[in-house]
Design brief:
Layout: E1 3-7, E2 13-19, E3 33-43, E4 48-53, E5 64-65, E6 68-71, H1 78-90, E7 96-105, E8 110-119, E9 133-139, H2 141-148, H3 155-160, H4 162-173, H5 175-180, E10 200-210, E11 213-226, E12 231-238, E13 253-262, E14 267-273, E15 278-286, E16 289-294, E17 300-305, E18 311-319, E19 325-335
Parallel strand pairs: 3-8
Antiparallel strand pairs: 1-2, 1-3, 3-6, 4-5, 4-9, 7-8, 10-11, 10-19, 11-12, 12-13, 13-14, 14-15, 15-16, 16-17, 17-18, 18-19
Helix pairs in contact: 2-4
């Protein structure tokens, strides 16, 4: 027996409950709603999960859907219900769960909390829940848009994710970006896909010494796969676009790095350039860090370290002849969650 809490139009629990039976959600009294969570699942490689609903479902049987989810049981909070439904229907656990929209649908007496969940599990580890789903597939941005525009898409679901869908469409409509940007391919072996954790958008804090004074500059750093998965490019923006008017910097940089995997040497050949400098580097792995030798400068390195799903550190260091290290500048990055897409 499944019991639902009933809510008012403001999303507040009324103290009343509803015992679920097949299709009886339509009989919920007017002005009352039960909570439903749906979860769009995105893998860290950028693909989205589509699942096919079981033919026994009382709503949209046999349809493909771009979400896991279902009704919250009495006493559950939205995030709690979303994590439970995601695990029950897919066997997956999200390491990030972002609320995308909160909407009401009168015909079904439903109050929807719609989430974007990010997972990093093996893509073939998904476990289908009997009676809920019968098949699944992972699709890239183009495949996702093809789905939402097809007859097999659940249109009310599209409405709840309309802002996200429009962002993806806008990205795909840029033909240059479409030709440049890429999903992950097998052209970089997994064991050498060192920069994969950095793909995404980052809010950054830059530190150095300028005119004898310690300096702190807000910036942004954006990483993407490019050229059919053969490389990774970034855009390095310091000061950030949102702060450059109020905090201009005489030596500010709006630059880019192109990282191409060198299959023969199992390293990355890198070129960085902005309007006043160009550097060539060779990046190798040094323990848990990524260490790039600046090829035209003696004993000079760029080092990415402390890399997690949500943060990293970058340092520009010079080693003196006595072996001591001088820190020229450093950046601390924090992932901007809504732009993982």
């Amino acid at each position: 027996m499944e019991i639902w809490d009933l809510y008012d139009k403001e999303g507040r629990r009324t103290g009343k409950t509803w015992e679920r039976q097949f299709g009886n959600y339509r009989q919920i009294p007017d002005g009352y709603y039960h909570m439903v969570v749906d979860i769009l699942v995105q893998h860290t490689d950028g693909t989205y999960l589509l699942t096919k609903r079981d033919m026994s479902k009382d709503v949209y049987p046999g349809y493909w859907e771009a979400s896991a989810g279902g009704s919250a049981i009495a006493g559950e909070e939205p995030f709690e219900a979303a994590r439970r439904e995601l695990f029950e229907e897919t066997g997956l656990t999200a390491f990030r769960m972002e609320l995308v929209s909160h909407t009401f649908r009168d015909p079904s007496h439903s109050m929807f909390y719609s989430f974007l969940a990010t997972v990093d599990a093996a893509k073939d580890s998904l476990v289908l829940q009997e009676g809920e789903t019968v098949d699944y597939k992972w699709v890239d941005d183009r495949g996702f848009i093809n789905y939402v525009e097809s007859d097999q898409a659940i249109k009310t679901h599209n409405d709840r994710y309309k802002d996200l869908i429009e962002r993806i469409k806008k990205r795909l409509n840029n033909s240059f970006a479409e030709a440049l940007l890429s999903e992950k391919t097998d052209k970089i072996p997994d064991e050498y896909d060192w920069f994969a954790p950095l793909i995404g958008d980052w809010d950054c804090d830059y530190y150095d010494v300028w005119d004898g004074e310690k300096r702190h500059v807000k910036g942004e750093w954006i990483f993407r796969r490019i050229l059919e998965g053969t490389g990774i490019q970034d855009i390095f923006i310091f000061p950030s676009r949102s702060t450059k008017e109020i905090s201009p910097q005489p030596d500010g940089e709006y630059g880019t790095s192109l990282r191409m995997y060198n299959r023969e040497k199992n390293c990355y050949d890198v070129v960085y350039t902005c309007d006043h400098v160009m550097k060539r580097l060779c990046f190798t792995k040094d323990g848990d860090s990524l260490k790039g030798k600046v090829l035209d400068e003696e004993r000079t390195y760029w080092v990415f370290s402390d890399i997690t799903g949500d943060s990293f550190r970058w340092q520009y260091v010079m080693y003196k002849e006595d072996g001591s290290k001088e820190l020229v500048c450093e950046v601390e990055g924090k992932r901007i969650l809504e732009t993982l897409l």
